[in-house]
Design goal:
Blueprint (H helix, E strand, L loop, with lengths): L9 H7 L10 H6 L16 E4 L8 E4 L5 E3 L4 E9 L3 E8 L4 E5 L3 E2 L6 E2 L4 E4 L10 E7 L10 H6 L16 E4 L5 E4 L8 E5 L4 E4 L1 E10 L2 E9 L4 E4 L17
Keywords: Hydrolase
Organism: Streptomyces achmelvichensis
Protein name: M23 family metallopeptidase
């Protein structure tokens, strides 16, 4: 879609914002939107070099480093597997609050047990080379649910949660600072008009946008745009119309 320039000042935009809606959306549609948990703000799983990515014969990503390198949970959740497994040697699976599952393999030491509640960035294991492995590394997978049989691409999964590989545990997440405008800006779980609203911004708000993607077309405040910004700290997406920048597609912000 062509770039739509927005040249109004923040003050004028804020004054023009209507309090009733982020987008033209009927009350009935809003009520019908299914309740969904918000995606979590992610943490870096481990430091190291990405030696193999996700492809048809490899369900995850391999991050190599020295034996004993700390491994962290990418988000809050409950440990559903912690033990030994063929191929992995040892592995851990964590079910997160948004229903997704992350999987960690080849560690030499596990530090969490089944049914244990963990937080994002919590130390859960130490890197090893157990099972079918040619050297110390973390094999990391992301699954849409506990019933999925194929891991999704961990790159976009982590990017939507504010983490880009390779990463540094404990460091600040990548992103670009912007300010929103408007008095009733809805944050949604996905870039869709029928996605659940996780919160509403009541005025101009500083935000850190980690990535953006195309979604439903939104028409509001005299603009139309299908670009949405992901803000991990808010747990969801807002239409780029309400990001105070003249360009419809935010410069310097990667695609989710």
């Amino acid at each position: 879609m062509p770039v739509i320039n927005r040249t109004k000042s923040l003050g004028l935009l804020a004054a023009a914002a209507v309090a009733s809606a982020l987008v033209p959306l009927s009350a009935a549609t809003a009520e019908a939107a299914p309740a969904q948990p918000a995606g979590y703000a992610g943490s870096c799983p481990t430091a190291g070099t990405v030696t193999q990515g996700w492809h048809s014969g490899h369900d995850g990503v391999d991050i190599a480093n020295t034996r004993g390198t700390p491994i962290y949970s990418t988000g809050a959740g409950t440990v559903i597997v912690s033990g030994t497994a063929s191929g992995y040697g040892q592995w851990i699976r964590i079910r997160h609050d948004d229903g997704t599952v992350t999987e960690y393999g080849h560690m030499y030491e596990r530090l969490v047990s089944v049914n244990q509640r963990v937080s994002g960035g919590q130390l859960i294991a130490r890197m090893g080379s157990e099972g079918q492995s040619t050297g110390p590394h973390l094999h990391f997978e992301a699954h849409s649910s506990t019933s999925s049989t194929r891991g999704m691409n961990p790159g976009p999964y982590l990017a939507e949660r504010g983490v880009s590989l390779p990463c540094t545990p404990g460091g600040s997440n990548p992103g670009t600072n912007f300010t929103t405008w408007g008095t009733s800006v809805r944050v949604r779980t996905d870039a869709k008009l029928n996605a659940a609203v996780v919160r509403t911004l009541t005025g101009p708000t500083p935000v850190n946008v980690t990535c953006q993607k195309r979604g439903d077309m939104v028409t509001a405040e005299g603009y139309s745009n299908d670009a949405w910004a992901y803000i991990p700290a808010l747990g969801g997406f807002i239409t780029n119309i309400y990001i105070d920048h003249k360009d419809a597609w935010l410069p310097g912000v990667p695609t989710c």
